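During the first year of the project, the team set up a workflow for recording each protein of interest as an amino acid sequence followed immediately by a discrete structure-token representation. This format lets reviewers and collaborators read both layers of information side by side without switching files. As required by the reporting guidelines, we include two representative entries from the current panel. The first entry is reproduced here exactly as it appears in our internal archive.
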Amino acid sequence: MSMQETYKTEIQGALQKKLGKKNPIAVPALSKIVVNMGVKGAISDKKNMQNALVILTQITGQKPKVTKAKQAIASFKLRQGDQIGAVVTLRGKRMYDFFEKLISIVFPRIRDFRGVKKTAFDGRGNYTLGFSEHIVFPEIDPGKVDKIYSLEVCIVTTAKSDEDALVLFEALGVPFEKENT
């Protein structure tokens, strides 16, 4: 059973009782996952940008959108309109599949992983994770990697508060850091 089906059949009802929501639509759920990659050497070498697009396509299974500079910054030799990154927005089945892959495959592959921090919520129930190496994803063959790229994963929920989102993430099986007592 996929995570999406598990959420709809089991988790949503349990969260509704736990949070005391009368309307099932008021129960927090995943809305979208945005995977973002800023490409450091995109201006000096166009090959870096192409490599980043291929990597992001492999990781997410979806074609990324190229992001461009909104303003010129002379000290970085950056002109307005230069390609500087890539972004993918996942929704529906792809989003739940990616989320399940994060929890069950990617997190255990991270060196010295002790859980994600509970402090990375933004105040509106959204959670952002940063990965310093893209090679933790199973689709990437470390033997063929010539340059390490970092990326950011922003998980957007329908939760109105961080507390509701924390309950949702715990129900979905996100491993949080244990607090030192």
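The second entry, processed by the same pipeline in the following quarter, appears below.
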Amino acid sequence: AAIRNIFGIDSHHIKEFESLNYSLSNITEEDLLLGFQSSNEILSSSITFLESMIDEIEEYWNETDKNSNVVMSANENIELIINRFHQVCRQLNKRYNNRPTIDINDEYDVQDLFHALLKLYFDDVRPEEYTPSYAGAASRTDFLLKKEQIIIELKKSRSGLRAKQVGEQLIVDSQRYQVHPDCKRIICFVYDPEGFIANPRGIENDLSKDTNGIPVSVFIRPEA
């Protein structure tokens, strides 16, 4: 599992490691002795092979490679929260004996719940981080993941905030956030449980792109 995660499932490393195998059939006393000798050779080869991969990582992998793996994992965890956010909201409404719960009625409710879910994966979550002035106006992000250098923007659709307005706001926000010194990626999540936004996949495709070298990803959930 470690080799697959580090080098990739199709790498020659995993293929060569999987080729190291040993089995016995129709065992005799002589085969048993030879078999143990053979298994020791296989074990020695496996150890040597693993040590060579460790040397390769230490010698050729730089900090950029290691940081890219951290960022990859962070993106996956954020996307998991986004994709399951609606399920979490629905589950919160099914409390025992109708006990009080959090109702997701506006963007502040979305922010509160999303903040709690981010704590599952990230230690340093900074809400309402102010950005430097851009085009004469300052703004503040919903969340900054300081270590991962990811800014997260959250919105909730409503009757007066539909596709065109959401798109315009996201474009303006993403331009402002880019001047933040810790911004290396922007992730925008629009929670649309009522389905106010028509053609959500089209908006995602139009707005998810690199802008001035900063990747911007837009997610509208739940999926229809």
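For the second entry, the following points were noted during internal review. The beta strands are 125-127, 130-134, 137-140, 143-145, 150-156, 185-191, 209-211, 214-221. DSSP finds seven helices and eight strands in the chain. Both points are flagged for discussion at the upcoming steering committee meeting.
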